Amino acid sequence: MTAAGDPPAARDADAGQPGGRPDPAAPDADATPEPETRWSARDRARERELLELIASLDADDPRRVAARDEIVTMHLPLAGFLARRFRDRGESVEDLTQVATIGLLKAVDRFELDRGVEFSTFATPTMVGEIKRHFRDKGWAIRVPRRLQELRLAISRATAELSQRTGRSPTVAELAAHLQVPEEDILDGLESAQAYATISLDATAGDTGEDGSALADTLGGEDAALGEVEARATVHPLLASLPARERRIVEMRFYQNMTQSQIAEQVGVSQMHVSRLLAKSLAQMRTQLVEAEADAAALPG
Amino acid sequence: MPCVDTDPAVTLRIPAQGAYVVLIRAAVSAMCARLDFTIDRIEDIKLAVDEAAALLLSDALGDASLEVRFTPDAPDGLRVTMACPTVHGRRLARDSFTWTVLTALVDEVVATVAPDRTLTIDLAAHRSEAVRP
Prior knowledge:
The complex is a heterodimer. Chain A is mainly α. In chain A, 60% of the residues lie in helices and 0% in strands. Chain A is elongated and about 65 Å long. The N and C termini of chain A lie far apart (57 Å). By secondary structure, chain B is an alpha+beta fold. Classes of the chains: A mainly alpha, B alpha+beta.
């Protein structure tokens, strides 16, 4: 580990440990001050005690839960430290800290005492991995240039502002005029918001169109009533597999026929974010359909 | 700027592989912007085109091309016709996930299978919200 990337708890004991190299994709951490907390011998002893307790107790034992909470709390500064390394990438440090904390919880559950590794050494890559997965899920796996990220944010703000003014979502021409940039830049910015789409399309085989699933029952159409029960049975597990917010957004768009802007307002995120979540959810549902079909192995034709 | 009635059709032909779908998206965006569609509308149409492309690519013949034709649809719409030779020539079922998504996102969906198993998906979208000229 380099000094700059060194988490506090790993400072002395892990100087020579492998596995903690700074993430080459992460921005320079030079400017990021390390957490203030010093790691005393007493802390270290307490950490050891807690880890032993966790290892020895059943998962649902309240004492284990308490020990887990305490060890997570002890390492929260580390989670925050790692989260800050990924700031300026379009996600708030608060969100990233939460994501890192999830990684921290996973690390607690997976840690093996007898491997002779410091907990923080073990937990750091787990937390970084969780953050990177978060970005990947959010669709930022393709590195979006800073200029486009800023543009995307500017477009997002302008979209909200113009929508409020006119009561509808703006056109590309209106956004370009408002931000005083060429229309082409607006198109670039919109596409960068969807950068993940190329991935999801590569990654999924797509729907074969032979399955019985549909959200169609509430959308009208003469065939909608046909096989409604079956369709509901297929689509509900798909919907249920989405995170709550995504599910709500899909339902609002496809069941309640709300526009992306209306959804954005109601959910409290930007229209571009709604668009991104919709595309991601559809891709995810599509993948699951294909998997479900493969499982059923009953493809006609 | 929009001059739908006199705009000529535009045809884009790409290898039937996921990596090229981004080109269709870019073309859709540019065409929609030209027609003064709102951002909401553009994103819906892009989602629909993604979905249609995913369906077509899932069953595309090995070295097939995906042809995308953009036609101005008077008075204020855009028609996107995507066609690709497929292995099975399956029709697009009306109770399928894809159909549902497409019909929710655009105004008109027509899917046809030619005798040579070329699947064609035709999407038409109109400028739904009043935009001041």
